[in-house]
From TrEMBL:
Gene: gluQ
Similarity section: Belongs to the class-I aminoacyl-tRNA synthetase family. GluQ subfamily.
Residue ranges of domain Glutamyl/glutaminyl-tRNA synthetase class Ib catalytic in the record: 3-232
Species annotation: Idiomarina ramblicola
UniProt EC number: 6.1.1.-
Superkingdom of the organism of origin: Bacteria
Name the record gives this protein: Glutamyl-Q tRNA(Asp) synthetase
Keyword entries, A-Z: Aminoacyl-tRNA synthetase, ATP-binding, Ligase, Metal-binding, Nucleotide-binding, Protein biosynthesis, Zinc
């Protein structure tokens, strides 16, 4: 059974770019007669803004994007991530690294494996994954075959940070596997991390999820619309307008008259168009 997810970071309310990602993942899950989960990715605890998670969930509900099952919060799963690190440590797939970012940049544009044979380490240290068999290619439903043989993709990436926090690369893969996610639909800014995550998927399960990276929304300066770039939050008083605008970025153009329709009506039409666009017959 298809199972997708939307996994926002609670560093602020949804903006148009995050609504596009939520809507695309929702439509793809429902078009496959599957489940759509919502996960709050607050593993980077200092970035989480108080009340932001509740705001995001409320915005999703107001736009008719109803999720299946309960919400998973990464900030509550330290013991799960630690257990996985211990298993990888036992399999000799981790090592300690006390290199600062400045030291790494002084040697190379990417991490060069400097600490693989430098045990023991001084504190603080990160834990890096021994990336012996990197995934350099995957089939993306929106982009086709994506290949990257750069040093960035092949580097030993961090699974626990020097500050003791669990890395996004670890948390997202462990959670996707535990939640039974079959397909990952998200923004194209995450293509490079996808190589690392698929490598970890391969290590932990021997398989990989389906991948689909959606178009990015740019601001007037040509930068990705994001909270870091001060993207304005969506106006929840303009639900129909927001949905139609997001659908336009997903290359689904519905009639302007639908500005006065309900979220349910717009999503039903959007679902029909999504199935046609991506040749999905349902299950």
């Amino acid at each position: 059974m298809y199972r997708g997810r939307f996994a926002p970071t609670p560093s602020g309310p949804l903006h148009l770019g995050s609504l596009v990602a939520a809507l695309g993942s929702y439509l793809d899950a429902k078009a496959h007669d599957g489940e759509w989960l919502v996960r709050i990715e607050d593993v980077d605890k200092p970035r989480a803004v108080a009340g932001a998670a509740d705001t995001i969930l409320n915005q999703l509900e107001m736009h008719g994007l109803e999720w299946d099952g309960s919400i998973l919060y990464q900030s509550q799963r330290d013991s799960v991530y630690q257990h996985q690190l211990e298993l990888l440590q036992q399999a000799q797939r981790l090592y300690q690294c006390d290199c600062s970012r400045r030291a790494i940049r002084a040697r190379s544009a990417h991490y060069d494996g400097y600490c693989r044979s430098r045990q023991p380490r001084s504190n603080p240290f990160a834990l890096r994954f021994v990336n012996q068999n990197p995934v350099n290619e995957f089939n993306d439903r929106a982009h086709g075959i994506i290949t990257d043989h750069s040093a960035s993709v092949s580097e030993d990436f961090v699974l626990r940070r020097r500050d003791g926090l669990y890395a996004y690369q670890l948390a997202v893969v462990v959670d996707d596997i535990e939640q039974g996610v079959t397909d990952v639909v998200r923004g194209s800014d995450l293509i490079t991390p996808s190589f690392w995550q698929l490598t970890l998927w391969q290590e932990l399960t021997g398989k990989q999820p389906g991948m689909m990276h959606l178009p990015l929304i740019m601001n007037d300066d040509g930068r990705k619309l994001s909270k870091q770039n001060h993207a304005p939050p969506i106006d929840s008083g303009k639900v129909s307008h927001n949905l139609l605008t997001a659908l336009n970025y997903l290359d689904i153009d519905l009639e302007p008259e639908l500005q006065h329709s309900s979220a349910t009506e717009i999503l039903q039409l959007a679902l029909q168009n999504w199935r046609k666009k991506w040749h999905i017959t349902g299950r």
